């Protein structure tokens, strides 16, 4: 009967253990690059072309390959939080000892149950550390979303401005190409000298190089945008004629710098990492408590004499008293504290520097725009005079090229100004996803 009960108990325990086991399913790696062959193949609904900058950002956040991989880290962090919420399993020991010889009459057996008490002491701290680590992952993913959104905004804007500026570069090149063709005929008929033709050819080559450089940059930007969206390189993403950017007020940005630590995901991630490290220091200190295992056991010998009672096992902290773990945890917390201070200083310093650069470019752009009407008026008068044969072709081309040069200078300043604006808006999170954390209260450093 005793043997039957023992087997029955073991069968029940095995059944309980098996029901909690997970099943394995294979997940083979891709054999081909999972790039979308068209805009319509992207995840989420593809808006009607041409795309605005805001629509490009939406597609990037939904389809960027690196973001898809980063978001899976949330599942890992959630699993670690769940694991931290579980107490250590009790330990069950059992033995069945058949009678081999001697005066006994029945087989002997014993059964014991024990629990690690030390793991209970660090339970709450482990939970808090795991929750802080999970929030750190959430904030890190949102920060990566900011980076992707900022890149999408920057690249789409540069492409739009570049397509608009190309008309100016092309017009300048065509004007010089027409004059070069006429000079070639004049040179062939020996009505002009090579010395007269040389400056025009240098100017034509410079205009051609500038146009080629712009086309190369545009193609490179399109490839960057496709990679950001998870598209094949040959796909052409149609874009709107003008960039739609969030409203930008430098004075408002300066006023919001003080609240930056409560909003920027990378700073929040560092704060959560510091909170987790602080809890790990608490665990290291609590772990200096000696190992303690409590339990009970019952046993029956070969003469059916049954004994039972509590068991106690305690570790003797003679050699390892946990001092190394405490020192490591304390140093780690100090490093994270310094990392946070460094990142906060860099964040505020970078935004302040970009605002100063924005102000400088704005002043330079204002001066260039003030000079543009005179350049355009001079080009218009030159064209009228050239049409009336009151100005030679060389003078006409020089005045028209001066207008093109001034317009290209303004375009360059406008693009630089937009680049600074987009960089600032990315760093402060204008129009970007926000971090939703249960608690972002920093832990005081001690």
Notable traits:
446 residues; alpha+beta; Outer membrane efflux proteins (OEP); 4-stranded antiparallel β-sheet; disordered C terminus; OMP_efflux; efflux transmembrane transporter activity
What does this structure look like?
There is one protein chain. The protein has 446 residues and is α+β, with helices and mostly antiparallel strands. It has helices spanning 2-19, 53-63, 65-71, 73-84, 118-121, 123-188, 194-229, 250-256, 265-286, 323-387, 393-428, and strands at 91-97, 108-116, 292-300, 306-314. The protein has two domains: 53-86 and 122-287 and 322-428, Outer membrane efflux proteins (OEP); 87-121 and 293-321, no CATH class. It is 64% helix and 8% strand. Strands 1-2-3-4 form a four-stranded antiparallel sheet. Strand 3 and strand 4 (306-314) form a beta hairpin. The longest helix is centred in the middle third of the chain and has 66 residues, at 123-188. The two termini are 63 Å apart. The relative contact order is 0.13. The model is unreliable at 439-446 (pLDDT under 50).
């Amino acid at each position: 009967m005793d043997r039957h009960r023992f087997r029955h108990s073991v069968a029940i325990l095995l059944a309980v253990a098996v029901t909690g086991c997970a099943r394995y399913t294979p997940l083979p790696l891709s054999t081909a690059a999972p790039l979308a062959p068209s805009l319509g193949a992207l995840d989420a609904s593809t808006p009607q072309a041409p795309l605005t900058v805001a629509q490009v950002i939406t597609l990037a956040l939904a389809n960027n390959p690196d973001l898809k991989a980063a978001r899976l880290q949330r599942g890992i962090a959630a699993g670690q939080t769940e694991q931290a919420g579980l107490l250590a399993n009790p330990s069950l020991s059992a033995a069945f000892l058949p009678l081999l010889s001697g005066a006994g009459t029945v087989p002997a057996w014993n059964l014991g149950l024990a629990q690690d008490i030390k793991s209970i002491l660090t339970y709450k701290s482990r939970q808090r550390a795991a929750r802080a680590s999970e929030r750190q992952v959430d904030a890190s993913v949102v920060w990566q979303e900011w980076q992707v959104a900022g890149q999408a905004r920057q690249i789409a804007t540069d492409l739009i401005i570049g397509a608009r500026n190309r008309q100016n570069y092309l017009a300048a090149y065509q004007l010089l190409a027409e004059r070069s063709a006429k000079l070639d005929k004049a040179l062939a008929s020996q009505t002009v000298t090579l010395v007269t033709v040389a400056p025009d050819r240098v100017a034509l080559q410079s205009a051609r190089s500038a146009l080629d450089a712009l086309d190369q940059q545009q193609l490179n930007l399109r490839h960057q945008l496709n990679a950001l969206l998870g598209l094949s390189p040959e796909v052409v993403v149609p874009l709107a004629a003008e960039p739609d950017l969030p409203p930008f007020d430098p004075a408002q940005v300066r006023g919001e710098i003080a609240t930056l630590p409560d909003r920027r995901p990378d700073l929040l991630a560092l704060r959560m990492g510091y909170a987790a490290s602080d809890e790990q220091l608490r665990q290291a200190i609590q772990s200096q408590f000696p190992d303690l295992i409590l339990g009970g056991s019952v046993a029956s010998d070969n003469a059916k004499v049954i004994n039972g009672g509590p068991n106690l096992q305690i570790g003797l902290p003679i050699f390892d008293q946990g001092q190394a773990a405490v020192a490591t945890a304390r140093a780690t917390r100090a490093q994270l504290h310094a990392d946070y201070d460094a990142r906060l200083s860099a964040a505020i310093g970078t935004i302040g520097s970009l605002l100063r650069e924005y102000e400088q470019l704005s002043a330079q752009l204002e001066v260039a725009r003030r000079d543009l009407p005179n350049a355009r008026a001079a080009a218009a008068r030159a064209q009228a005079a050239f049409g009336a044969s009151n100005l030679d072709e060389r003078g006409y081309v020089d005045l028209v090229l001066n207008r093109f040069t001034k317009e290209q200078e303004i375009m360059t300043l406008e693009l630089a100004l937009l680049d600074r604006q987009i960089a600032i808006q990315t760093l402060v999170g204008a129009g970007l996803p926000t971090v939703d954390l249960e608690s972002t209260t920093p832990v005081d450093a001690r």
